[in-house]
Predict the 3D structure of the following.
Amino acid sequence: MIKHFLFVSFIVVFTGALDAQWNRVIAYGDTAVDHKCFDGYVDSGGNQIIAFTDIMNNNLGIAKFNANQTFEWSFTTQRDVSGETHVQELSDGNYLIAYNEMYSAGLLKLSPNGSVVWQRSYLGFVIEAIEEDVTQDLYLCGNYYGVGLVSCLNDTGGVRWISKNTQCTNYMDMTFTDDGKLFLVGSRMGLFQGTAMVLSKVNKSGAELWTKSYSHNFSIHAKSVVQSTIDHCFYIAGALLNPSDPIIDSDLMYAKVDSTGQIAGMRTMGYVYGNYGHDLVQAEGNTFILAGSSRPIEICGGTNLVFVKFTSNLDTVFTRRYGDASGMDMTVYQLKKYQPGNYYMFMHAYTYSVFSLSDVIHIRTDSTLDVPCKNLYFPMTGTEHVLTPQSGSNFAIDSATIGFAMNVFPRIMHAADPCTGALLSMEEPKMLAGPLLFPNPALESVRISEFSNRPFDVRIYSISGTLVADYHGLSGDTIIPVWNWAPGIYQCIMTDGDKMLTRKLVIGR
């Protein structure tokens, strides 16, 4: 999972037709090739950047569709991927694609028009997650020849330093902490025992501050982590797997960890077979949304899509499961927050394809996590239920210590509405010259101009998603005082009923 901050201003204008796209499923593909999705991203302009391969994980491809799902460009590479692939927009407006091959990892930086800015390969690396800090340095985690890896790269992909932890086999995710350090989650593989969960904290020079590992009578796999902006604890998603039958006998897991790495609670749940938690984000307040999967049939069945919303006490708010009784073989990858209260994910599904083949699936949803057209792609199967949660009290602390060629050949050329099967090819969204946020960065006040000749509303959110200002019925040029706001990056959303426009606002020098 990739999390980052954007420092560029941008404009996104949605017409009335686009406003209805939340709670929507979109399929990408063509009529000739099965596509397997590994990650996607909605950038600051509403464009979708998709990373995909064929069904055998061959020939990594990148495609771009605009905010109306109209195809812009794509190409395939001669890279066959063997693990996680990640897509993100960097603070300079370019795109970064991280991928893994059999014996190395790579980074590919693309411009908004799809041209290569730079590309680097890293022998022996496996990249599981990557972060960009405010200085545009890149921090990645994963493993290096079977040992936990943390590394810092400069903005052109050059290695600044590498830190390895022999207590960890593989770091799966990381996040910047409130005190400017890195918090990592991973696993340690045992030769004659299950997998233990490993938690580490390092500084931005790569020095290890502490590492703790936790064992369980089942193998515990930590996949994703976020730090709460409210209680500052860390929340982890993954799975508990029975070592004797890890494919079938597994429960979805989420845990709470304090700032010292001590587990404060853990819950597991599942539907029928093979439950796994893939990613999670912080929702409104101190609640969290987890995206995962479960298997409705023992071995040959595919996977259903699972959502769980839970509180900071790890109590379940609700669950959602989408898929048919035979399994649609859906695999979810990253779940990301698009705007406060709105979320999206990229995944792939192998059956019931609009294009009669495996498709890349893009789901946009809000905090209710409802998904439309359940009679086609996501039919519900009976009443939702969860197994009895485990308390997590049987955890034990084990240890505690301080150039490639590219083929310019489009492979994904169409987007479709799975509810109707109709191809999506609408006109470009109407772009405005304004509004102007001036000055930006701002110190004392900011002026909003040129947005609408009708009354409009303005909502401004902090980078953590907290609503800091809410104005209704504004008209003409508007001045908003910001002299007492904390320095940082804010999101300004303006609406007048027919259109919505979003800009980044910087407070402080």
